[in-house]
Design goal:
- It contains eight helices and ten strands.
- The chain is an alpha+beta fold and 277 residues long.
- It folds into two domains: 130 residues, N-terminal domain of MutM-like DNA repair proteins, CATH 3.20.190; 127 residues, Helicase, Ruva Protein, domain 3 (Orthogonal Bundle).
- The strands form three sheets. The chain has a four-stranded antiparallel beta sheet, covered by helices on one side. Strands 2-3-4-8 form a four-stranded antiparallel beta sheet, with helices on one face.
- β3 and β4 form a beta hairpin.
- The two termini are 26 Å apart.
- The chain binds a DNA duplex (16 and 16 nucleotides) through loops.
DNA sequence: ACGCCCGCCTGTAAGC
DNA sequence: TGCTTACAGGCGGGCG
C-alpha cells in the first residue's frame, strides 16, 4: 500500500519531526523486521548516539541519514512509522522503538512484516544494497524528458503495467498508482510498451508526473483497511480522487462506461475498457 | 527478455 | 454461530 506518494508524505513529516534529533536508545522487540542484521545488538549500538541529519527517499525506500550510516526503512505492505510520546500505549506489532535525547519516540509498526528496517554505511549502500542501487528513475526527484521516457519504453517490449510496477524501470509505483496513471493516460495495462504513438508516450509521462504530484498534495491514499497513515496516525485524502482503483461497477468519470476488474498476473487491475485503449 | 506463479505474513470479510 | 477460504499487495525467486 505505501507507494511513492505515501512514502514521500512520511519523508516530509520525518524531515520536520526528527531531523536534528539525536537517537538515545533503540529497542528491538520483533526480529523479522531487522532480519538483514545477523547481530541485532550491532544495529542498536550503531544507531545509539547518532544524530539524524536529513531524510531522503528513493522510490519506496526511506533513507534516514544518521552520521556515516543510512537507516533504511521499507514499509512493505503494512509498515508504519509513528511519532509517539513515551507514555502512549504500544500498538500491537511494534517492532522497533527509537527514543530521542530531546524527548519523543519514533516507532516502527508492521503487522505483516513484509517491510524491513536496517542500517548500512553510506559508502557501502551501492555495493551492499542492490535493490536500492538498481532502482530506476524516481518520477518526482529525477525529471526526465518525455522523449527520453519514450526511448526507454521503446527499448522494452513489455506490457505497460509490468513496466510501471518494475522498480528497476521506474521507482515508486505499485498497484494503486499504476492503475490510476494508466486511466489518466487513457491506456490499457496490457498495451505493449513499444506500440505507443508519440502522443501516447507524452500522455503517459504527463499522467505519471501529475498523478503523483496530486497524490502527494493530498498526502497519499488510505484504503478501507486503514493500513496507511502518516507519522501522526492520520489518513491521506487521495483515495477520494481515485478514478478506477477498487471502483468496479462504477461509472468512468471520463466516458461513463462501467469500470471493470481484471485478474492479471495474480493481481486485481481496474480499468475502463471503453476509453483506455 | 518476458510472463506468470509462489511464498512470505496478518487481518478482514465473504461464503458455506 | 463457527469454520474455511479468499483477498489485500511489495518483492525476490523460480520456472517455462
Amino acid at each position: 500500500m505505501p507507494e511513492l506518494p505515501e512514502v514521500e508524505t512520511i519523508r516530509h513529516d520525518l524531515e520536520r519531526e526528527v531531523a536534528g534529533k539525536r537517537i538515545k536508545t533503540v529497542t528491538i522487540t520483533g526480529s523479522r523486521s531487522v532480519r538483514r542484521h545477523a547481530d541485532v545488538a550491532a544495529l542498536t549500538t550503531r544507531l545509539e548516539g547518532a544524530k539524524i541529519d536529513a531524510v531522503r527517499r528513493k522510490g519506496k525506500y526511506l533513507l534516514i541519514s544518521a552520521g556515516d550510516d543510512w537507516l533504511v526503512v521499507h514499509l512493505g505492505m503494512s509498515g508504519q512509522l509513528r511519532k509517539c510520546a513515551p507514555k502512549e500505549p504500544v500498538a500491537p506489532h511494534t517492532h522497533v522503538t527509537m527514543a530521542f535525547t530531546q524527548g519523543g519516540q519514533l516507532r516502527y509498526v508492521d503487522p505483516r512484516t513484509f517491510g524491513e528496517i536496517f542500517v548500512v554505511a553510506k559508502d557501502e549502500l551501492d555495493s551492499k544494497v542492490s535493490e536500492i542501487a538498481d532502482l530506476g528513475f524516481d518520477p518526482i526527484e529525477d525529471v526526465i524528458s518525455w522523449n527520453t521516457f519514450g526511448g526507454m519504453l521503446m527499448a522494452r517490449k513489455a506490457k505497460l503495467k509490468s513496466l510501471l510496477m518494475d522498480q528497476k524501470f521506474i521507482a515508486g509505483l505499485g498497484n494503486i498508482y499504476s492503475d490510476e496513471i494508466l486511466w489518466a493516460a487513457g491506456l490499457r495495462y496490457d498495451r505493449s510498451s513499444d506500440s505507443l504513438t508519440t502522443q501516447e508516450v507524452r500522455r503517459l509521462y504527463r499522467a505519471l508526473v501529475e498523478t503523483l504530484h496530486e497524490a502527494i498534495k493530498q498526502r497519499g491514499s488510505t484504503l478501507s483497511d486503514a493500513q496507511y497513515v502518516d507519522l501522526y496516525g492520520k489518513p491521506g485524502g487521495f483515495q477520494a480522487e481515485h478514478k478506477v482503483y477498487a471502483r468496479e461497477g462504477q461509472a468512468c468519470p471520463r466516458c461513463r462506461a462501467t469500470i471493470v476488474r481484471h485478474k492479471w498476473s495474480g493481481r486485481s487491475t481496474w480499468l475502463c475498457e471503453a476509453c483506455q485503449v
